[in-house]
Amino acid sequence: MATRASPARRALSQNGSCSLQPGGAAHKGWQGFPPSFPLSRTAALGGVGRCRPAPGQAGGAVTCARCRAVRRHRGPGRPRERSWAGMGCAALLWGAILLACSCGPGPPRVGAAPLLAATYVLDDANGLGREFDGIGAVSGGGATSRLLVNYPEPYRSEILDYLFKPNFGASLHILKVEIGGDAQSTDGTEPSHMHYENDENYFRGYEWWLMKEAKKRNPKIKLIGLPWAFPGWIGKGENWPYDYPDITAYYIVSWILGAKQYHDLDIDYIGIWNERAFSSKYIKLLRYTLDKHGLEQVRIIASDRLWEPISFVMMIDSELHGVVDVIGAHYPGTKTVKNALLTGKKLWSSEDYSTFNNDVGAGCWARILNQNYVNGNMTATIAWNLVASYYEELPFGRCALMTAQEPWSGHYKVESPIWITAHTTQFTQPGWSYLQVDGHLEGGGSFVALTDGLGNLTIIIETMSHNHSKCIRPPLPNFSVVPQSATFYLRGSFSMVQTLQVWHSRLDFESGNSSLFQQLHPLRVWRGRFSLDLDVDEVYTLTTLKTGWKCGYPEPPPPQPFPSIYSDDFNIRNPPFSEAPNFADQTGVFEYFVNASDAGDHVFTLRQVVVQRPITWVSDADQTISVIGNFKWVNMTVTCDIYIEKPRDGGVFIAGRVDNGGIYVRDSKGVFFWVFADGTYRVTSDLAGKEILMKGLAGVRDNVWHTLTLNIQGNSASGLLNGYPLWENVTISKPGNGWAALGTRSFEFAQFDNFHIEAC
Prior knowledge:
It is an enzyme of class 3 (hydrolase). By secondary structure, the protein is an alpha/beta fold. Strands 5-6-7-8-9-10-11-12 form an 8-stranded parallel β-barrel, surrounded by 4 helices. It starts with 6 loop residues before the first helix and ends with a strand.
């Protein structure tokens, strides 16, 4: 576990705020420059609000201070500036010029070709564009927040603050969560609130907790629920949720009602079936069932796949058109289709990004946050995923806004996409409106402008280059971006704006010294006009709002590998979550269980509880499995008490060097030690149990506790039953490393206790 935090740090985390000290005075001369004098030559005077430990300060206390005017060269590609001493003559010259002419181009850059220059008009006199619905992220699809809940304080609260706290970090407007369906949904399974038809439990999993934590920080955040999979009973044996649409609608509405009844959470939007077929009959019945239960305020998003065929069907089916509120498309490549526009509905990129969270990922995110509206009229963009809190070797490792995958150490990392998000989220709110502008910059890149209708204006500009903004999907057509000068004219209700706050990021792919979300000197708007020099791979936010802050906590503990010696006896009477720490279910669901029939040492156990194959989203394994540990482990000894509940053909296993999970779980290889209720055992090199390395009689029975031990050293493995050797000297060729695991032969009840690993 992580080391105990200092009292000062604990106090900071509890307060959830940062202390901001007044900063140094700005230089008094530059505001008099005309607007044509480029902002990048005059306003790059340092930043405000990066909250960090004061130098030499003990206890991790945090202070924030406005940075003084930066008088040094800011590095290649950073906003260009001149020393104030060197500007003296230029200032006198400009003063003389101003007497003769109140506007005109800025002084030429010595030895440089003139920048491509263009002008853009921002005017609300003829009305506004579409209403802005927000920026958000997905938890789930699946099990992407699995390890977050196990973080010790204060680190867990710090992570949540970076994600949800307004004017702090990402400041997200929307949280979309998976409605758990007991099936694999990318990086693991999430438990259903109804494993069985007569079963309801609204405390399973961690999405309820996450939604409450988000609401605690931002009461205005919008909540969305979407199923990836469904429990098997809904399909009555078929892998299809629409044969009995009334049952499926009841199941989904129960989740919404449970959110309110047990957690006081109001769900704002509900989806249909992630990236799978939709049923018009089901969508209509879902709307009817929502209204019947007094949930008229819950809006329907369809179909969380592609623009078509949902848009076309809505055009020819007026009843369907009437019940769908938002058309949500995934990974649209910033483009929409004609039919979607013709519906007149809100258009969202309801899942996007899904890219490794380095600076290229940040470039991808910056580009699509603007261009989803500029090119596609999409008024909300939702990232998959919220936080990389799953083992990195699972599919799409670190494809999230930030990284928190080590609860055992407390280490986490605030990645650059967090600060790219802040450029939009800290200076807009759902309910604002886009201005009617083309949004394309002449030299490449884009801009959007939004207003609250009360005189406030926010402009976000991005100049991401092609190779530095590739998302994982879809393929990105070639384009070019060049340094350029942009002049903006403010008209209509914005003509009286005199000052804009300026926030700037530059992704530096040469030196790796990116500058993220730094506040520059406020920009003086001169007679409704201002200009900027824009370099490549930059983001600017220009806004009338003064509420933005770049805040932060002291550095978290350093990264550490998963403990090489680890034990869990599952002895907890009232667990805060249904799943044991650090176990990542890949097929099936493993929950804390109170074994009331056992008066001995196994009252509190871990139980696999899915007994029917779910309606799957991907091709789940035929066996259940939960992995744990360090993927790099080579040599290990795994010991666990096991209890087979299914007579005759039931079975369980423990395993080591497991090399796969997530959507590839069916192909998992490793060393699997199985025992079965018929008294036999088997050693296999695969989860499917087809590659048999050894087999024989073990004398194991169902409904009796037994202890299994698997020892893997180098190229050899051996197994013990109840402390006695059962098999040995089995040659292992591959894989060479992987997780430890436990699981069952089929979808069946089974229990596990006193799990212990020693590994290296």
